[in-house]
Specification:
With 136 residues, this protein is an all-alpha fold. Helices cover 54% and strands 0% of the residues. The protein is built from six helices and no strands.
């Protein structure tokens, strides 16, 4: 049993959740290991600083008061589902598809409306004339 890798085992020891064999094994380890003993001591100090149910006095009608407050609190209603947002998004997508098919989005699609721009010849730089050299 490697207790150093499993502090949950030490927490279970403090809570008294281990079997008697495990309790004896952890106790014998704590007798030999100052690190684990310090961890258990720290946990005990922290837990002792929290009040228990015996330390706090509750009013006799506490449960009734809480239940009455819960019953009087406004209950939230479930939201109504409004499909308009999804419907608007679907309509926008459909409009883009239709416009692309008909080529009215300014040359985004590869339709025949853009062929006029492709019919022009490509620009070529002017050709330089080569003059003969004197004396050559």
């Amino acid at each position: 049993m490697n207790i150093h890798e499993n502090t949950a085992l030490l927490d279970a020891f403090v809570d008294g959740e281990l079997t008697s064999e495990e309790m004896i094994s952890v106790q014998s380890h704590l007798d030999e290991c100052p690190e684990c003993r310090a961890y258990v001591d720290d946990v005990l100090v922290i837990r002792a600083s929290f009040p228990t149910e015996d330390d706090v006095e509750m009013p006799a009608d506490f449960a009734e008061t809480v239940m009455k407050a819960v019953a009087e609190a406004p209950q939230s209603r479930p939201k109504k589902r409004q499909p308009w947002g999804k419907l608007a998004a679907a309509a926008a997508c459909l409009a883009v598809i239709v416009l692309m098919q008909h080529g009215t989005l300014g040359g985004i699609s590869g339709s025949s409306n853009t062929s006029a721009a492709c019919d022009r010849p490509r620009w070529r730089p002017p050709q330089r004339k080569v003059l003969p050299r004197n004396g050559a």
